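Q: Can I borrow your eye for a moment on a structure tokenisation matter? Would you mind producing a protein record, from residues through to fold? Write it directly below this note and I will take it from there.
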Amino acid sequence: MPPESPVLVARILKPHGLSGAVRVELLSDVAGRFGVGAIFWLLGEPPARVTVAEVRGDPPGGVYLRFEEWSSVDEAVAARGRYLAIAEAERPTLPEGSYYHDQLKGLIAWTEGGERVGVVRDLWSTGPHDVLVLDADGAERLLAAVKSVVVEVDLAGGRIIVRPPNGWLDDDAL
């Protein structure tokens, strides 16, 4: 059975060639994650364990994988659109003060003064820093995910404490 809390690491896009290889979109940037011998859960019906037999190419945002368990294009076609996952316990431990994006999604953002700002709906990686995308009662608000703005992350409490820039909470600023 697949893990109770699977962590998605790739999505199968389409078959590649006739030997059962597939092109995958990478959802993980952990170095070496997709090497030969790596084992993943193929989510969907039926779920299955798959082992990477070959890694080829480097298309933008993805790789070509062939699995030990597949040998035909038909098997690759059947897997189109399905996700590869690992158990949450298999994720590398991050340094203190660093978080995976999915850990922050759904947290409620509050100011230091106790004003509810919104719910973290997404995070965007923009280069210099990530950006929190907050759902503020139907309005979308963006907030830099930097230490001077994100004061505290309380995963157990389901909240983050933020210090938004002056005027950011004013209705006129939208």
Notes: The radius of gyration is 20 Å.
